[in-house]
Amino acid sequence: MADPSSYRPKPGQIPDSPGVYRFRDEHRRVIYVGKAKSLRQRLANYFQDLAGLHPRTRSMVTTAASVEWTVVSTEVEALQLEYSWIKEYDPRFNVKYRDDKSYPYLAVTMNEEFPRVQVMRGHKKKGVRYFGPYAHAWAIRDTVDLLLRVFPVRTCSAGVFKNASRTGRPCLLGYIGKCSAPCVGRVSDEEHRELAEEFCDFMTGRTGTYLRRLEKQMMEAADEMEYERAARLRDDIEALKKAMEKNAVVLADATDADLIAVAEDELEAAVQIFHVRGGRVRGQRGWVTDKVEEITTGALVEHALQQLYGEETGDAVPKEVLVPALPDPLDPVQQWLTGRRGSNVSLRIPQRGDKRALMETVERNAQQALVLHKTKRASDLTTRSRALEEIADALDLDSAPLRIECYDISHLQGDDVVASMVVFEDGLQRKSEYRRFQIKGFEGQDDVRSMHEVITRRFKRYLAEKERTGEWADGDDTIADTSTEPLTTTSPDALAGGLKDDEGRPKRFAYPPQLVVVDGGQPQVAAAQRALDELGIDDIAVCGLAKRLEEVWLPGDDDPVVLPRTSEGLYLLQRVRDEAHRFAITYQRTKRAKRFRSSPLDDVPGLGETRKQALIKHFGSVKKLRSATIDQICEVPGIGRKTAETIAAALAQAAPAAPAVNTATGEIMEDEESGTTAETSGEPVSAGAPDERRGQER
Predict the structure, then answer these.
(1) What mean pLDDT value characterizes the chain?
(2) How far from 489 is each of 24, 361, 493, CA to CA, in Å?
(3) Where is this region: Disordered (predicted)?
């Protein structure tokens, strides 16, 4: 625990102006991001007597080792920069939303020649009309299935559409009347686009006029004794009414609004959002957050607004946002929302009437979501805490290992030797921290030497980052990191660009674990400990988990630590080990599949993919190319005589017994003698039984 007074800046050094501040720990990792109207006044609150601070705030300032700030011009800029940095750094002491999955939307691709109706998730695209979000994708498909009877808009993928155009035959939906089949010219592109526009109009709530028009057409058809047409129109009307029933009218004045409700206790808060468009509830979503900082309801609302509209613009931000409490201060948030929409946005608390009644419904949903979350999470939190405590007791650690790294070596009979590193923090996977290695120090199979090499390489990087010696780059397990000068300007564009520097941005291998787990027994554990000793690292614990009896081995001990089979600590170690094994096997298979898909032409210097494809297209196969003369090779467009001579020499040196490769598809051709085929999926290739194949693959 750090003493906040050791890094407290002098009051005169802190500007009395709007800005964003960052607290960092001893490893320069950003652990908290905040904004302030006055940086001087806000930061002074953190450096008061520890006894007067909220427990979570006290934990944050004692974990931090430094604080820095960036001055901006307005509070709106501070809000924007705070949101960007929280997304960039993922600070552990900021509010974090869980269960924020990518909610599905009903999308109409009006930016295409023939608009398509489909389910979409993720970032919104320009020129696409979105409706939702919906809680489930099946709810979208049910609605679309009803509406396609009346608005037979294209729903097929680009490949299906292209194939139907080529063959002149529509898909099944075209035959049953749920697609107007523009692929085969049943309707023109203008007629199809008009159908898509009518579909969008109906989804936006303009339903009354369209229904009245259909009813009038039905009556006219009946008067003219066109009973089949009248029956079809009657069924269309029923389908539309059934689709409308799925979204009940909640506000009679056709209001466009988002309603946000919060249910909270001392530790957590649940946020629920209802999206109302045209007076109807068009979508619902929700989050749960740990209250890792001392925070008010208004501040929770502000964070929810950032999460909800941080990447949205235009009509996605409604004219009215109803909340249970207003952020303080209100003006910067309201200005920010107005900027996102491009017109005025009303942010207020509903006091009476239908909107107040609907807000109470949203609040009940939030309360139920919090209760349900606590019911599911209680055992999970307890179990993970108990598992970490059991590991600390069994290994005689000073504290629970909040960060665990596990390493595994993988190969297939000594070929393609690779290693994996997986990370668990607080008992949960931290996939963004996973790393993979190629073994480079020697050839062949030696798990002990491989483990020593991997641990050495990983912790050399940690020491390099700790000493901040500069740039590095080394093979598959590293990426060159370029640095820029620290952010000094206050313009919004410069602030956004400054996020790309290495100040506070998590670098690979920058943070040490409290526990290193290796997949193996005494030899692997000894190799890992020897690597740490050679680097002078003595504050990281090491253990190994042997598969045979699930024994835990410690360096220098002749006997293993045997945890009970029902131990939560053993279960967590098994999960960590199995995840490392899965990650290593996946990488090893990828490398092997890539090697199998190689071609002798890959070794020809200066021969790019375009000319390789031209050669295969001209000759049909590598075998025929190998038997061609230099003059025949020169006939291929783009191949000169010197290149042809190089190709012929390279093919002559290639082993004729190598498996035949279809370079156009990347597949290994079948070997008639062995009867085995290499699969492009990267699965093990062997003529043996499945159990034997698994036994050969480490």
Answers:
(1) 76
(2) 21, 46, 9
(3) 473-505, 665-698
Taking residues 688-693, what's their average pLDDT?
A: 36
- Would you state the pLDDT for residue 525? 92
On whether the CB atoms of residues 33 and 81 are closer than 8 A, the answer is: no
Burial of 576 (0-12, 13-18, 19+ CB in 10 A): buried
Q: Which CATH superfamily is domain 398-479+507-589 in?
A: UvrC, RNAse H endonuclease domain (3.30.420.340)
Residue 113: closest CA among 36, 3, 187: 187
Report the relative pairing of strands 515-519 and 403-412 from DSSP bridges.
Answer: parallel
Nearest to 270 by CA among 282, 284, 281, 283: 284
Q: Are 428 and 410 in contact (CB under 8 A)?
A: no
CATH class in words for 594-696: mainly alpha
CB atoms within 10 A of CB 234: 15
- Report pLDDT digits (tens) over 211-227: 777 788 788 888 878 77
Computed on alpha carbons and rounded to an integer, the radius of gyration of the chain in Å comes to 32
Closest CA to 596 of 408, 410, 416: 416
Helix (H, G, I), strand (E, B) or coil at 248: coil
Please, what CATH class does the domain formed by 4-94 belong to? alpha beta
Tokens of residue 340, six digits: 């996102």
Rounded Cα distance, 109 and 522, in Å = 60
Q: Which residue blocks in 116-207 are alpha helix, DSSP H?
A: 137-147, 158-167, 172-175, 189-203
Pick from 17, 51, 54, 57: nearest CA to 37: 17
Residue in the block written with tokens 């957590």: 268
Name 403's bridge partners.
425
Every domain of the chain with CATH number 3.40.1440.10 lies at 4-94
Contact 274, 284 (CB under 8 A): yes
What is d(CA 430, CA 452) in angstroms, rounded to the nearest whole number?
Answer: 24
Amino acid, single-letter form, for residue 498: G
Q: Under the phi-then-psi rule, with left for phi > 0, alpha for psi from -120 to 50, and beta for the rest, what region is 262?
A: beta
